[in-house]
Design goal:
This protein has three helices and four strands, in the order αβααβββ. By secondary structure, the protein is α+β, with helices and mostly antiparallel strands.
């Protein structure tokens, strides 16, 4: 996947602009913060490299888990467990929801990886 800086958010639909920013965080780890719950870290065989690889390769977006086309939610089967991941968009102080998730200058993304039972 390529992130081309020559395409501005104004040239693409809003949901796609948000999706690209979410993809950037999920695939490269930049543009926000990635957190993992203690439940995931306690799984037998937990390995951060394996987890990141599975997250980066995730491509199973469909109408059920991505109804708005923002690629902000998914599920993974790793370490013999069902995991969920979710991207939330906050203001820069992490106090409120972002006023504009399509604008990275006013948005801090948080990608949380959790056990399905923790959702």
């Amino acid at each position: 996947m390529s992130f081309d800086d020559s395409t501005t958010c104004a040239q693409i639909p809003r949901a796609e602009a948000i999706a690209r920013l979410n993809d950037c965080l999920r695939i490269t780890g930049s543009g926000g913060v990635v957190v993992t719950t203690t439940g995931v870290k306690a799984l037998p065989g937990f390995d951060v490299t394996t987890l990141i690889d599975a997250l980066q390769r995730y491509a199973a977006f469909d109408g059920d888990n991505d109804p708005h086309g923002e690629r902000d939610f998914g599920d993974l089967d790793v370490f013999g467990a069902e995991l969920l991941w979710k991207i939330d968009c906050y203001d820069l102080q992490l106090e409120y929801g972002s006023a504009d998730p399509a604008d990275p200058t006013v948005t801090k993304r948080v990608l949380t990886i959790m056990l399905a039972s923790e959702y």
